[in-house]
Amino acid sequence: EFLILKEYPNSQIVDKPRLKNEIKALNLLNKTNKVPKIIYNDQELNISILEYIDGRKINKITSQNLNDAMFFIEVLYKIYSENNIKFELATEACLSGVDLLNQINKRFVKLKSVENKNLQELLEKLLELNSVLSSRASKLWPQDNFKKNLSKKYLTFSPSDFGFHNSILNKNNELKFIDFEYFGADDPVKLISDFLWHPGMKLSEKQKITFASRITKVFDNDKFLIQRLNASFSLYGLRWALIILNDFLGEKMIRLHEVNQNNRFDYENHLKVQMDKSMKIYDNIISNKMECNYVK
Q: How far is CA 236 from the centre of its chain?
């Protein structure tokens, strides 16, 4: 029998948030039959042993794959809304407009410290866009929630890094979801936006419209959700444009070299590819006039 041994990176920290969070999340979601079962975990060693899911990664996203993902989001909301479960916020949760703007600004500060002419030229363009998007958001965002946190009744459970890149299609063609280290409560607008913007997702425009249309209806008790989505969608896109550029940062650079130490890794070319991806998001935001065109 195969099993998965998972070691978590924060082994020197006394409190093991990523291990503890994943175990808590997997226990909560165990009955969904959509996540791996926990066999064993050890807080001191900072490891877990999980069920091995015999399957494959998804290359081309089918309508059934998309349905499975949407159904799982519906289940997450059902568990959140029908149970009074105390759970931490998801990693980098955004419960207000100010939360989102602060996260973006922190990413700019980190990247501005990197000595790379091409990167700094790209950041100048992204900073100009940030200024326009921030101003737009402050006008369009529901005013009772721009500075103040969204009410808990409008939140949902979110894996925080949700998508087909963290899924396995098993031998019965059932989609199983993995990696719940960052799981917690969050604004569903962030979950929707991240799913649509994630650079690892190869969704067609039709699939994006299908997803946004169905998932926004799940949260129809929140009359300001569409307004928040329109105000924040391009800011989430900008946030992803900055996340992609993390590979310029020291700690990410070291990790990339460690992972690829047995290969001839062309780091300069890799950084160019990352800048192209970031620029593609910039172009997308501009061409869509900074709006979310997947919902009406």
A: 10
Q: Looking at the predicted structure, is the pLDDT value of residue 13 above 80?
A: no
Reference 61, options 214, 202, 211, 215; nearest CA is 202
Predicted model pTM: 0.93
- Please choose, from the candidates 151, 143, 231, 139, the residue with its C-alpha nearest in 3D space to the C-alpha of residue 189: 231
Nearest by Cα to 104 from 17, 214, 231, 232: 232
Judged by DSSP in three states, 56 sits in: strand
Question: What is the phi-psi region of residue 90: left when phi exceeds 0, alpha when psi lies from -120 to 50, beta otherwise?
Answer: beta
For residues 188 and 225, the answer to whether their CB atoms sit within 8 Å is yes
Neighbours of 151 (CB within 10 A): 11
Burial grade of 250 (CB within 10 A; 0-12, 13-18, 19 or more): exposed
Q: What is the mean pLDDT of residues 221-235?
A: 97
pLDDT of res. 261? 63
pLDDT at residue 260 greater than cutoff 80: no
Q: Tell me how far the alpha carbon of residue 202 is from its chain's centroid.
A: 15
Strands 3-7 and 55-56: unpaired
pLDDT in tens, 36-80: 999 999 998 999 999 999 999 999 999 999 999 999 999 999 999
Query: Are 292 and 262 within 8 A, CB to CB?
Result: no
Rounded-to-integer distance, Cα 93 and Cα 87, Å: 13
Reading phi first (left if > 0) and then psi (alpha if -120 to 50, else beta), residue 276 is in alpha
Those residues whose C-beta lies under 8 Å from the C-beta of residue 181, and which sit 6 or more positions away, are 8, 18, 19, 21, 22, 91
Contact 165, 133 (CB under 8 A): no
CA distance 9 to 181: 11
| pLDDT per position as a tens digit, 184-210 | 999 999 999 999 999 988 899 999 999
